[in-house]
Amino acid sequence: MISDLQKSQYQYPGSQGLPEHYPQPPDSDKLLFYIQRNHNMNTVVYEVNELQHGGINKTYPMHAYWLKYNTGGEIQELNFYQSKLAYGYESEMINQDSFEFNFVSYKELKFYIAKDSTEKFNAYCNINGHMSVLKNIYVYAVELGVFPTVKFIELYGIHAQSGIPAYQRINIDQ
Known about the structure:
By secondary structure, the protein is mainly β. It is built from 1 helix and 11 strands; from the N terminus they run ββββαβββββββ.
């Protein structure tokens, strides 16, 4: 009987936010943050794009690539369309060790790359009114045609001053 069905049976997978069973990429000194989506566990990883002789690439301060969990964790570069329409970014150098960037697919949010007190690069953004170290982003989208329609994003991080976890959900009106 339909009245016996739970409301949750009508929800799409991931519609309540980042699923707890999603894996996290291995931590490293180069890892800035990562993006996961509701479609599968494959993850876009953003790392510091270091030059061979040290320092950060001033033109492209981040290297973004897929970590394909559905094929055993293989690494795959973003394709042209993913870089230009979805997961790519535009950046501007502020000084030798800091950059401002935004995603090509959602220019409304500003992010930053800068060194912390230990000289490690981190990604930063405003999460619920507090500058925070960005750890990961979750994107919930529905596919109704050629391009997915993003319904909301979630930002996860750590408040830069207090060290407490930071979270914000942003509903996207499309």
